Amino acid sequence: MRDMTSSLQPATGDAPLHVAQISGVLFATLNRPDRRNALTDDIVAALDVECERVANDDSVRAFVLRGAGGTFCAGGDFGGFKALMREPAPATGRDPIAIYNRRFGALLEKLAALPVPTLAVIEGAAIGGGCGLAAACDRVIMAADAHLSMPETTLGLPPAQIAPFIIARAGVSRGRWLMLTGQRLSAAEALYAGLVDETSSPGGIDALLQSELARVLAAEPAAQRATKRIVADAGIRERSLVLDAAAADFATALRSGNVNEGLAALAAKRAPTWQIAQPALPETP
Predict the structure, then answer these.
(1) Mean pLDDT of 121-140
(2) CB 272: neighbour CB atoms within 10 A?
């Protein structure tokens, strides 16, 4: 696949999300460094659009989420909430604050449901909603000098939309305690808690990302999409139905010809045609 760069908005310093696609990997960089990449309305909207595009674009093989300016994400932006708080709660129907809050949860659901491998790259800090973004990804890597926290309860709020994604990663007991206390975690502590999968030395995060992407791009894309589908189904459907659908996916893969290429490459001790050994990274804004 040829290298390409694409953006739904001009890839300038003013775009809330910088988007680049290289060798099938879509890199989405939160681009509000002056606000530590807080989750402003424009960032959430841009991420939502990108998730929709990735879900419907077979040319995308992986999705990488990171932040500009050395910080992953400082969490929610209270500007929108403050405007809504000036108005009293409605006598009937859903509170507009609840509707506004739920939009972020819908974004996390879309991110978690993407059909390709997803990676979050934490530098600097991941706070509140930033932890939710990372937890919704398949793989989370973190610079050794970064930290994360979920301080919502210390501010008088529940971690409403991120909680299901945190406990899915860290487990119920550990995730619940971390959210109840708002404890700040170092990279080593986040790794132990299960919120992070790998850590790098300071300055080594790009090398670690390239190593992770090389593993992703060594696997056949359709097989990866089928694997994500099977795993997602396993959490919500009856086991026998999951196995029936998985058998159909297996048959489709076996008849596709990709297996022949994989076996031929193994026998010849060469890389299969889909493998990209050294994925390039775009410049971070």
Answers:
(1) 98
(2) 16
